[in-house]
């Protein structure tokens, strides 16, 4: 299980759920700059999309290894943030490359060998734009992800593929459901499967300003998380990760004991890209 290699004939899928509620207007620091959390998260998702394109690039061009959907959830409801292609409401990585998107120059801090930091200017395509308004209809977003994942896995050509990955990024609690309902929706996502394994659900909770509780990423057990009801809920909603993720997580958590849970609690925005990179690690299985 979870050993399928990714090819153009057997691609995989990523579904990114992005909290765009009013609390995402809170300021944070990212890349050496002060900005809204909504802006930082949009920037990080754009970086991730760029990274997936990079992983798909070969001498003969971009190979269609991935189908991608990005859904934002806020007071406006649940909205697709990328135009759907011809792949069951996903956009293929080749279509993403061709999609018109403005390039914005960003000043970012890069850490050099030896630990010294330097500021660099990078041009980043802006497929996703920031928004922060209203409530947090997370349950509706999870339900939409379950439908997307189910439709993708039902396509005959995807039956032997590495299963889809769902990445839920949020800074707060759902406004549209009880904990029991959220657990049920998360269970619906995790029950969808290809022949290679069940869909994997990651939940990444972003820290607020002035947060005193330390970040906990990919815990081995719930006792590693703070004794907070919501942290416990996110733990139960998230998938237990298969062994193919162990080495990547152990590189940042030496001495930890797998299996790991696909959850992060009180994560600084600065660490979000690293979590998403691990979450999309299946993309390294391309051949």
Q: Over all CA atoms, what is the radius of gyration? A: 18 Å
What is the assigned CATH homologous superfamily? von Willebrand factor, type A domain
Mean pLDDT score: 89
Could you say what the CATH architecture is? 3-Layer(aba) Sandwich
How many independent structural domains? 1
Q: Give helix and strand order, one letter per element, not per position.
A: EEEHEEEEEHEEHEHEEEEHHEH
Approximate helicity band: 25-40%
Please state the structural category: alpha/beta
SS field, number of helical segments: 7
Q: Mind telling me the CATH class?
A: Alpha Beta
Shape: globular
State the distance separating the first and last CA atoms. Answer: 18 Å
Secondary structure: elements and pairs:
Blueprint: E1 12-19, E2 27-30, E3 33-36, H1 37-55, E4 57-58, E5 61-62, E6 66-74, E7 77-80, E8 91-92, H2 93-98, E9 103-111, E10 117-125, H3 138-154, E11 165-170, H4 179-191, E12 193-194, E13 197-198, E14 200-206, E15 216-217, H5 229-237, H6 246-252, E16 263-267, H7 269-279
Parallel strand pairs: 1-6, 1-11, 11-14, 14-16
Antiparallel strand pairs: 2-3, 4-5, 6-7, 6-8, 9-10, 12-13, 15-16
Helix pairs in contact: 1-7, 3-4
Structural features:
eight-stranded mixed β-sheet, 29% helix, 287 residues, alpha/beta, 7 helices, Rossmann fold
Question: What do you see in this structure?
Answer:
The protein is globular and about 50 Å long. It has seven helices and 16 strands. Helix 1 (about 35-55) packs parallel to helix 7 (about 270-280) and helix 3 (about 140-155) packs parallel to helix 4. The protein has helices at about 35-55, 95-100, 140-155, 180-190, 230-235, 245-250, 270-280, and strands spanning about 10-20, 25-30, 35, 55-60, 60, 65-75, 75-80, 90, 105-110, 115-125, 165-170, 195, 195-200, 200-205, 215, 265. Strand 12 (about 195) and strand 13 form a beta hairpin. The protein has one domain: Rossmann fold (3-Layer(aba) Sandwich), CATH 3.40.50.410. It has about 290 residues and is α/β, with parallel strands linked by helices. The mean pLDDT is about 90. Helix content is about 30%, strand content about 25%. InterPro entries: VWF_A (IPR002035), vWFA_dom_sf (IPR036465).
């Amino acid at each position: 299980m979870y050993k399928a290699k990714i090819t153009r004939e057997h691609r995989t899928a990523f579904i990114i759920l992005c909290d765009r509620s009013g609390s995402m207007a809170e300021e944070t620091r990212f890349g050496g700059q002060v900005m809204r959390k909504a802006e930082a998260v949009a920037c990080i998702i754009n970086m991730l999309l760029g990274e997936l394109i990079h992983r798909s690039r070969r001498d003969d061009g971009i190979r269609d290894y991935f189908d991608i959907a990005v859904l934002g959830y806020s007071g406006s409801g649940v909205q697709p943030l990328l135009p759907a292609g011809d792949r069951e409401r996903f956009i293929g990585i080749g279509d993403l490359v061709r999609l018109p998107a403005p390039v914005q120059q960003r000043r970012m801090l890069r850490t050099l060998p030896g630990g010294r930091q330097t500021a660099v200017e990078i041009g980043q395509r802006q497929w996703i734009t920031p928004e922060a308004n209203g409530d947090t209809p997370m349950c509706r977003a999870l339900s939409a992800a379950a439908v997307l994942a189910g439709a993708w896995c039902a396509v005959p050509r995807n039956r032997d593929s590495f299963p889809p990955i769902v990445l839920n990024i949020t800074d707060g609690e759902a406004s549209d459901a009880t904990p029991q309902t959220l657990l049920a929706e998360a269970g619906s996502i995790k029950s969808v499967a290809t022949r290679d394994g069940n869909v994997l659900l990651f939940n990444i909770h972003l820290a607020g300003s002035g947060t005193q509780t330390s970040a906990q990423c990919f815990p081995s057990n719930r006792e590693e998380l703070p004794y907070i009801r919501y942290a416990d809920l996110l733990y139960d909603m998230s998938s237990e990760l298969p062994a193919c993720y162990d080495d990547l997580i152990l590189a940042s958590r030496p001495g930890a004991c797998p299996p790991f849970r696909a959850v992060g609690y009180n994560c600084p925005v600065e660490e979000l890209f690293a979590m998403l990179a691990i979450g999309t690690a299946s993309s390294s299985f391309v051949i």
